[in-house]
């Protein structure tokens, strides 16, 4: 497939990898057990994440699932709305669990979920790692008497994570001494909790090229169930309400291969901030209280952010979101502006069938914000009002949100049906006016959460058919007015077909086809014109679990990129093979090799890849080359886990990789990562 490699080092490397693969096939011990939780997280994210169109770090989404593994949802106490925190379950399926509990009594084991006839095994498999049952019955006669200190330590959990990532090649920014700091990217985090009453966390991070180990820091302290408050939070936090039109975290799910689950956001209300994204989080205090069917949350934030400020007028001209502070210009903009936020949220919940919410949000800046766009965000103070609803009646779920920013109102409305045990249908309508500006929103849409200048209709089905689980969605949208981002009105549509099946024992297959037609702005004879862009991708994948300790995964993906007026027609190809091998319960190997060839960056093929625990990223595979990585996880004792990742990207026809300060002279980009996890 690729041109003949003239680098003997890589020929030998490929031979060695092939030999190791054959060895794995024959020496895998049957008694080993796979790490089902991490595999399930990988599977869930593969279903929910949108097909990437650019390189991004999606580690924040992994953190949502990791937090659920540390603090499982109690299925003996959770309401329908609390169960929906699980990203792999619908409101209708959550209602089925609650009604079963009300009819037959409390669950003694999470495995009783398999006995509920309305739930499929596939659904239960995906939620088992993230749920638990309460253990309130203690036989005092056999419970040994504990001293105060012993009881404190028994009820206390401490979790420490330390990570270091560094390039082995030296990038141009370091060679030219443009970066002030050192090469490694350093991450340290400590979380501690006592029962469910108190929790504390602190996070420190330094990006490559930055000088201080505390270039970014975050901390929180939470008290739960202190009368009359249900939660008191001090420090850094997120606020997620409704369907994300007014207030949401800086990341979220959008369209993915699961046509049903991704169309609804599952708000977590007020949550501690544990991410390294240096934007759109709050720093201050938040309190919430519950009284019968009502709940009230109020929050205050006084936080700084990076900004480019005009030296004469003093206005904010742009807000960089990369969080990098390596060069003089980047260091100059650190925390140069301030945002003060006050919010109030009240909810009314009736049984497990109705939830209504009203949100007030006011935010003000230390410097006036200006935009080059007519309808862009401009001003110094902004106020929002929103109303959200979530109605569940039998097998029908109706939900949505309306948000008003003082100028115009954005809205989203959706309905989901469970027509039979195996057939779901959803339709969603969104209307985001051109003059609506959401400072902290992340709504469902075509443009990764941007809630402005978009009208769209989304329809999706999920059918558990005799031949496998079929997901299909069709989304059509238009950007009705010219803005800075879209200098001409445009429209588009896309559809995705995905089928997953298990034709044989221990074998799972996946076929996915995606088609997109979208108008984009181009240039002809010096004038801006609309050109029609067509993108298509076809993926075939097979997962073969040879035993409980050995899993093989193979993928082939083809794509095409076409511009109608420019008469551009490009192709892309990606092949990968990975192996997961667990010789013992203390040792885990994960290896993947990727071959790729595309005509240019336009036809790049993206792939999410496994990484150290808590890290998820995707890479644009373009040009012609090979990438491979190896992850080793070792657990010498129960409370400690060590992880190591080594990765290489090799492009034989190139003389340099990347550009600007990130440029690498040569055709090899390799990186090593190390992580220590301690939990006790």
What is this structure's SSE topology?
Blueprint: H1 8-27, H2 36-48, E1 56-57, H3 59-70, E2 73-74, H4 80-83, H5 91-104, H6 121-127, E3 131-132, H7 148-154, E4 156-167, H8 172-175, E5 185-194, E6 198-206, E7 216-226, E8 229-240, E9 269-272, E10 282-291, E11 294-305, E12 308-309, E13 316-318, H9 328-332, E14 337-350, E15 354-369, E16 379-393, E17 396-404, E18 409-420, E19 423-432, E20 454-465, E21 468-479, E22 490-504, E23 507-524, E24 527-547, E25 550-563, E26 568-584, E27 587-598, E28 605-609, E29 617-621, E30 624-637, E31 640-650, E32 656-657, E33 664-665, E34 668-679
Parallel strand pairs: 2-3
Antiparallel strand pairs: 1-29, 4-5, 4-34, 5-6, 6-7, 7-8, 8-9, 8-10, 10-11, 11-14, 12-13, 14-15, 15-16, 16-17, 17-18, 18-19, 19-20, 20-21, 21-22, 22-23, 23-24, 24-25, 25-26, 26-27, 27-30, 28-29, 30-31, 31-34, 32-33
């Amino acid at each position: 497939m690729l041109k003949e490699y003239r680098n003997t080092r890589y020929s030998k490397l490929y031979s060695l990898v092939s030999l190791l693969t054959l060895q794995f096939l024959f020496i895998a011990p049957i008694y080993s057990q796979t790490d089902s939780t991490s595999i399930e997280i990988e599977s869930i994210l593969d279903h929910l994440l949108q097909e990437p169109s650019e390189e991004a770090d999606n580690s924040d989404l992994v953190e949502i699932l990791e937090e659920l593994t540390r603090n499982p949802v109690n299925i003996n106490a959770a309401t329908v709305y609390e169960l929906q925190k699980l990203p792999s379950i619908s409101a209708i399926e959550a209602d089925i669990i609650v009604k079963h509990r009300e009819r037959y009594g409390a669950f003694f084991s999470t495995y009783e979920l398999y006995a509920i006839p309305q739930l499929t095994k596939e659904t239960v498999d995906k939620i088992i790692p993230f749920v638990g049952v309460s253990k309130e019955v203690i036989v005092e006669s056999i419970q040994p008497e504990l001293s105060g200190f012993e009881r404190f330590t028994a009820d206390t959990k401490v979790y420490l994570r330390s990570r270091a990532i560094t390039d082995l090649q030296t990038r141009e920014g370091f060679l030219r001494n443009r970066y002030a700091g050192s090469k490694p990217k350093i991450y340290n985090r400590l979380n501690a909790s006592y029962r469910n009453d108190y929790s504390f966390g602190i996070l420190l991070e330094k990006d490559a090229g930055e000088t201080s180990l505390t270039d970014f820091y975050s901390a929180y302290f939470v008290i739960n169930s202190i009368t009359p408050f249900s939660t008191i939070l001090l420090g850094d936090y997120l606020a997620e309400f409704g369907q994300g039109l007014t207030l949401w975290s800086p990341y979220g799910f959008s369209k993915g291969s699961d046509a049903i689950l991704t169309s609804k956001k599952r708000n977590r209300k007020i949550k501690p901030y544990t991410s390294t994204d240096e934007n759109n989080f709050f720093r201050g205090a938040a309190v919430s209280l519950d009284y019968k069917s009502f709940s009230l949350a109020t929050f205050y934030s006084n936080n700084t952010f990076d900004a480019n400020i005009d030296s004469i007028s003093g206005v904010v001209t742009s807000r960089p979101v990369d969080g990098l502070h390596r060069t003089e210009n980047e260091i100059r903009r650190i925390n140069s502006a301030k945002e003060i936020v006050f919010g109030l949220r009240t909810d009314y919940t009736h049984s497990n069938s109705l939830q209504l919410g009203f949100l007030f949000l006011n935010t003000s800046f230390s410097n006036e914000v200006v935009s080059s766009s007519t309808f862009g965000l401009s001003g110094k103070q902004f106020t929002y009002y929103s109303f959200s609803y979530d109605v569940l009646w039998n097998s029908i779920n109706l939900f949505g949100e309306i948000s008003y920013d003082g100028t115009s109102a954005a809205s989203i409305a959706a309905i989901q049906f469970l027509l039979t045990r195996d057939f779901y249908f959803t339709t969603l309508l969104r209307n985001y006016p051109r003059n609506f500006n959401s400072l902290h929103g992340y709504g469902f849409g075509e443009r990764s959460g941007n809630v402005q200048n978009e009208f769209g209709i989304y329809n999706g089905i999920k059918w558990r058919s005799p031949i496998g689980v079929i997901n299909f969605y069709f989304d059509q949208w238009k950007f009705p007015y010219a803005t800075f981002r879209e200098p001409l009105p445009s429209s588009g549509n896309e559809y995705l077909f995905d089928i997953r099946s298990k034709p044989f024992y221990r074998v799972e297959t996946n076929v996915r086809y995606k088609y997109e037609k979208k108008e984009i702005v181009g240039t002809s004879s010096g004038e801006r014109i609309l050109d029609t862009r067509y993108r298509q991708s076809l993926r075939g994948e097979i997962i073969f679990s040879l035993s409980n300790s050995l899993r093989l995964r193979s993928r082939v993906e083809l794509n095409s990129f076409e511009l109608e007026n420019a008469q551009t027609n490009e192709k892309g190809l990606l092949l990968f093979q990975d192996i997961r091998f667990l010789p013992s319960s203390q040792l885990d190997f994960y290896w993947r090799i990727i071959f790729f060839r595309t005509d240019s960056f336009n036809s790049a093929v993206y792939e999410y890849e496994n990484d150290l625990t808590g890290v998820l990223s995707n890479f644009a595979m373009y040009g012609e080359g090979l990438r491979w990585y190896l992850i080793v996880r070792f657990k010498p004792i129960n409370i400690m886990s060590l992880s190591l990742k080594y990765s290489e990207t090799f492009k034989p026809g190139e003389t340099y990789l990347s550009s600007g300060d990130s440029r690498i002279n040569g055709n090899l980009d390799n990186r090593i990562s190390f992580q220590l996890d301690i939990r006790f």
